[in-house]
Amino acid sequence: MDGLAPRVVPMIRLVLTARALRAFADGFVAIVLPAYLLALGYAQLEVGILSTATLVGSALATLLVGRWGHRFAMRRLLLGAAVLMVATGLGFASLTSLWPLLMVAFMGPLNPSGGDVSVFLPLEHTVLAGSTSAEDRTAAFARYSFLGSVCGAVGALAAAVPDLLASRFGWQMIDALRGMFVVYTAVGMAVWLLYLQIPSLGFDPAVQPSPLGPSRGIVIKLAALFSVDSFAGGLVINALLALWLFERFGMSLTAAGAFFFWTGLFSSVSQLAAAPLARRIGLINTMVFTHIPASLCLIAAAFATSLELALGLLLARSLLSQMDVPARSAYVMSVVTPAERPAAVGFTAVPRSLASAAGPTLAGAMFAAGALAAPLVACGLLKISYDVALYAAFRKVAPRA
Length: 401
Known about the structure:
Helix content is 77%, strand content 0%. By secondary structure, the chain is an all-alpha fold. The protein has one domain: Up-down Bundle (Growth Hormone, Chain: A), CATH 1.20.1250.20. The longest helix is centred in the N-terminal third of the chain and has 32 residues. The radius of gyration is 20 Å and the shape is globular.
């Protein structure tokens, strides 16, 4: 960050701090959400439908930002997203009927997955891409992803708090679960206060945002491939993976929180390794050759006969499955012109979010039908197909400077 303008470095630090706080909240809410809905009396299908609503809402919010966001200051957009986060937490803490909860999930940035799929993502990615050089970009996105994984892992441990409140202090379990959404609200308020400190988020005035132009063909192909990957990932978002562990092995909320802590920690380590690996073998090779073994571990976990074996395979998966995230972000930012970056982020993020939104409802239906292994197997096979197609299409497309 030495060569950045004096105002840019504090902005990046604010963005990374906000990312860390949001990841902490996402870490526990992805595990608490299915437990909370089950405690309210809803079935696996309703858990999947509500998860779908959150992802569809995030996709549409990202689309709106990409279409009309240039009319507003970046600070205003980030503050608005934080307000939605606060409102979402309050809604889940106070509502119990399915339709109102679906509306809140659709409107807010609640994240039931292991990665960041909310409207915050394109806004923060644009800040990072516009504030780093080409050679530092993968490392910047790796730090961004690393913070998200580490803080998400710590948040997963916090999912044990309802069990603690119920067993040690006599709370009703439903009230303890509801209290976690109050914590989610508080985190949203902290994020709002962070972004309130940003006077503006302007970039080099010589590079004005523009619609997709010379890079349109590449971005469309990437968006289509990323959509396949995201649809597959939607079948095993953290909320549904937690549900699978609850239903398949009778895992407790506390044990699930500990497990997702370790998966998040392993993922964060892998993301730190992404930058040096990408420098050695290239961005596309990093994405593909770490992703395929991770998918094979997921397929094997679906047929595990014991909890220990399943957890071991899923932990092995977490060591590899997220290494492509910073490489993918850096690759998208590197194959388009600087002026096209905001549009490219939105154009690739929206189809991904919409594609992933279909997965939870389908997985919930599979669970309800008793096919507990099907979502994991389908996810693994689809992701392998995506990796093969990505390698075939882009192994010879070099990043720009």
